[in-house]
Design goal:
The protein is 39% helix and 17% strand. With 339 residues, the chain is of the alpha/beta class. Strands 1, 2, 3, 4, 5, 6, 7, 8, 9 and 10 form a ten-stranded mixed beta sheet that branches. The protein is globular, with a radius of gyration of 20 Å. The N terminus is likely disordered. It holds the Pfam family SBP_bac_6.
Length: 339
């Protein structure tokens, strides 16, 4: 209890406040402060906010929610939103807000901090981190020769009852969005139908990995950092788990972009732009390298956590993050009975 109180006191001292989505914050952003609608992991964005506030003195209020929840809230609030910055786990939520015309164009010096592949051409938002699609598998049941060469191989009837995913989450829907962009609607529809027949649905990537570790299923499609995060702690949910990268520009090698953008309605644009610049710059990317989020640093010249497979070795397919169609994906997954 004493540790929790001390941690809260430290956060408040740094000017970082976290609230639930749609809830009024105990701290109101003023001329020196910003409100961030945060759909990234709270611990990661809190670390960014703490470092930013310590360096600049600018206060940060965070409202926490999911990609879909906060994106829809921003669209509903429109120009009346109190948000200054939107941060997400995956890019489809950024696209939804961008299509509603709610983002301001970021300054060129901010955009230039990450490679072109991690930001849309319109410059309305940019990537600040990334996560790789992987196949985690039960090492007691599967050997390397047994593993699927492509994510599309999981549609084969021989995988029926042997793999899992979390289809209701924004993470998996981003993966399907990449499949749709890379292979088209016909291939995606057929794969989703086979997924409905072959896979077991769990709620959450960590739950799916835990099921693999417990021997409930042979494998699961998740993002990489769930494995590394568990390994860095007790490994109780990953002791029996191996990590398989699809590589070869396969849809299963998709690298999802976590985004950040400044709202056009923001009354604190300079402070908001400064926060996005800090996250994507040297100090913010160092948080990814040195922290325990295990997400990829994507800034120019930035290094990721040494435990991670280098991005170059992932052989990820080229996916335009600003064209991942979340509505189309939702419609296709619903039609397949996955949502």
């Amino acid at each position: 209890m004493r540790h929790a109180v001390a941690s809260l006191a430290r956060i408040l001292a740094l000017g970082v406040t976290i609230t639930g989505a749609g809830m009024a914050s105990a701290q109101t952003a003023d001329t020196a402060g910003i409100t961030v609608y945060n759909a990234q992991h709270a611990s990661l964005t809190k670390a960014w906010a703490e470092g930013f506030t310590k360096e600049t003195g600018i206060k940060v209020t965070m409202r926490q929610g999911s990609d879909t929840e906060l994106a829809n809230q921003l669209v509903q609030e429109g120009a009346a939103s109190p948000a200054d910055v939107f941060v997400t786990e995956n890019s489809p939520a950024m696209v939804l807000v961008d299509k509603a015309g709610l983002f301001a164009t970021l300054p060129q010096d901010v955009l230039a901090q990450v490679p072109e592949g991690f930001r849309p051409k319109d410059g309305h938002w940019m990537g600040v981190a990334a996560r790789s699609t992987v196949f985690v598998y039960d090492k007691r049941k599967l050997k390397e020769a047994d593993l699927p060469k492509s994510m599309l191989d999981l549609a084969d009837p021989k995988w029926k009852g042997h793999w899992a995913a979390s289809p209701s989450g924004a993470d998996f829907q981003a993966i399907v969005g990449a499949l749709l962009q890379l292979k088209g609607e016909t291939v995606t529809v057929d794969w989703l139908k086979a997924m409905k027949a072959n896979s077991t649905a769990y709620r959450g990537n960590s739950v799916a990995m835990k099921a693999v570790n417990a021997g409930e299923v042979d494998g699961a499609v998740i993002y990489h950092y769930y494995y590394f995060g568990d390994q860095a702690k007790t490994a109780e949910n990953s002791a029996n788990v191996g990590l398989h990268y699809f590589r070869n520009s396969d849809p299963g090698a998709f690298l999802s972009t976590s985004g950040a953008g400044v709202l056009a309605s923001s009354k604190h644009k300079k402070e908001a732009e400064a926060f996005v610049k800090w996250m994507s710059g040297k100090q913010g990317q160092a948080v990814l390298r040195d922290g325990d989020s295990f997400e990829y640093a994507i800034g120019n010249g930035a290094e990721s956590n040494a435990k991670l497979e280098p991005i170059a070795k992932l052989q990820a397919p080229k996916v335009e993050p600003s064209t991942l169609d979340s509505k189309k994906v939702s419609d296709l997954m619903t039609a397949a009975g996955l949502l």
